[in-house]
Design goal:
two-stranded antiparallel ribbon, about 140 residues, alpha+beta, 4 helices, 2 domains, single chain
């Protein structure tokens, strides 16, 4: 079911696809009710006999902004660039280590830290980490 309701958080109103505007109550509800009975776009919005009722949560505006972010071309470029390496790093961490061999938060945390450090060291060695008189460097 496709929905195109517009929420105006500043004016505290909700507008349906047919252009009908309703106020948002203090509890975050917008009820279209009987207006939906004669609406030609009813099939796009609801199947309820009572009409459409929206529940707008307190973080609705933030959620809508975050859902819009992936449509930004810069976001997509960054996501394509970084996602494969993040997924690969998680795979390296969990390969053969789905369960921590220790009990307790402190021991488990130490184990994960050492595992991440060893994977980072392995990566640096593959990149050409070599000792120099002044320290270590990748060549």
């Amino acid at each position: 079911m496709v929905q195109y309701f517009t929420i105006d958080h500043n004016a505290r109103t909700a507008t349906c696809p047919a252009g009908v505007q309703r106020p948002i109550t203090t509890r975050g509800h917008a009820t279209f009710g009987a207006i939906c009975a004669t609406c030609p776009l009813r099939a796009r919005c609801t199947t309820s006999a009572r009409g459409r009722k929206l529940v707008i949560g307190e973080h609705d505006q933030i959620r809508r902004e975050h859902r819009a972010r992936p449509r930004d071309p810069q976001f997509q470029a960054d996501y394509r660039r970084h996602r494969p390496m993040v997924e690969r790093s998680i795979a390296w961490l969990t390969r053969g280590a789905r369960r921590v061999p220790y009990r307790g938060v402190d021991k488990s945390d130490t184990w994960w830290t050492l595992r991440a450090a060893s994977i980072n060291l392995r990566t640096l060695l593959r990149l050409g980490l070599t000792p120099l008189p002044t320290g270590w460097a990748t060549v």
